[in-house]
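Ops channel
N.P.: pipeline sanity check, posting one input/output pair.
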């Protein structure tokens, strides 16, 4: 059991000793350690059972601190930082010498984010190192969006969970790379494609599924629940499975001809933002209900945060 509380001095002390603390962000909870301390970083990989070829994001609270551990901040990145940081956007930079190779899995780029959650911002302001923090779930499982999710899966392995309540965005950050001529999204997430296009103009999306270490961050079976999980395009594609122990996860309206008790809606409001906030919570809930052995999900509208939601649904389905 981890302690759960809002004591940032305690979190600071533990992190300074090289221990791990779960932290709230607006996207999902992170499993945080001192990003300059190779031992702390190694214990993140160990605790998550994460393969060492999958690099971590560094979190800090100001652009000045970012400048201290990356090689230069290009002009378009300053614009983005002005507009979207703190927020659900992760940007790849050329890595500086302070960043251990273990953080970047040997790549010469480092992923950086200034998160928006006030408690974590207060904590980051007290630290003179960035926090390496992947989502606080065992590798390949659904990301945690409240402290109980973290406690259930990693509570026995960490001393403290900083309690920032439920995550407002609910899906991980959007990851953006400037390695190619056109800025490229490597993972759709909490910042919409539309918002990026407004500032940058053309933006490529390269969120390929791959199991190759050369394409980190895009492992196909990420975000998977443990049950059989099927994704269909829409209601027309729905056929009743042979076994009756299925549940249906749809966007904003129920599928005709399926009993109420089997139906779950991601966004009764019809807003893609609500679907993002509730996605992982709903996946966990359905995963834990013994009366269902199969989850049939329907795609949500491919706009706004719907893109990130569909991406996570596809990855969940890829596993089974
Ligand atoms: O919202 C988020 O991004 C959350 C919160 C805690 O900040 N973090 C998160 O971390 O989702 P994680 O480790 O679960 O996902 C980070 C992704 C990984 O898939 C990793 O492969 C990719 O970022 N990544 C990190 N550094 C990279 C790099 N240098 N090049 C390409 N991909 C990178
Ligand atoms: Mg993750």
């Amino acid at each position: 059991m981890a302690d759960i509380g809002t004591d940032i001095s305690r979190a600071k002390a533990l992190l300074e000793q090289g221990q791990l603390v779960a932290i709230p962000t607006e996207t999902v909870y992170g499993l945080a350690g001192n990003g300059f301390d190779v031992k702390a970083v190694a214990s993140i990989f160990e605790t998550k059972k994460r393969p060492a070829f999958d690099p971590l994001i560094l979190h800090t609270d100001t652009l000045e601190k970012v400048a201290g551990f990356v090689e230069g901040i290009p002009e378009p990145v300053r614009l983005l930082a002005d507009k979207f940081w703190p927020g659900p956007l992760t940007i790849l930079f050329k890595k500086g010498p302070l960043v251990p190779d273990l953080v970047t899995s040997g790549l010469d780029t480092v992923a950086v984010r200034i998160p928006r959650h006030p408690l974590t911002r207060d904590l980051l302001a007290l630290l003179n190192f960035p926090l390496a923090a992947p989502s606080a779930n065992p590798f390949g499982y659904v990301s945690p969006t409240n402290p109980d999710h973290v406690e259930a899966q990693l509570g026995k392995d960490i001393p403290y969970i900083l309690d920032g309540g439920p995550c407002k965005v609910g899906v991980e950050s959007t990851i953006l790379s400037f390695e190619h001529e056109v800025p490229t999204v490597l993972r759709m997430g909490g910042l919409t494609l539309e918002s990026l296009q407004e500032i940058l103009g053309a933006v490529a999306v390269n969120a390929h599924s791959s199991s190759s270490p050369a394409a980190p961050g895009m492992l196909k079976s990420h975000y998977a629940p443990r049950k059989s999980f099927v994704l269909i395009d829409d209601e027309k594609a729905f056929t009743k499975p042979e076994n009756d122990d299925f549940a249906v996860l749809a966007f904003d309206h129920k599928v005709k001809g399926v009993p109420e008790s089997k139906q779950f809606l991601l966004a009764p409001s019809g807003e893609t933002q609500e679907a993002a906030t509730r996605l992982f919570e709903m996946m966990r809930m359905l995963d834990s209900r013994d009366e269902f052995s199969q989850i049939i999900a329907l795609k949500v509208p491919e706009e706004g945060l719907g893109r990130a939601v569909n991406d996570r649904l596809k990855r969940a389905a890829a596993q089974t």
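N.P.: looks fine end to end. Residues 5 and 163 are 5 Å apart (CA to CA).
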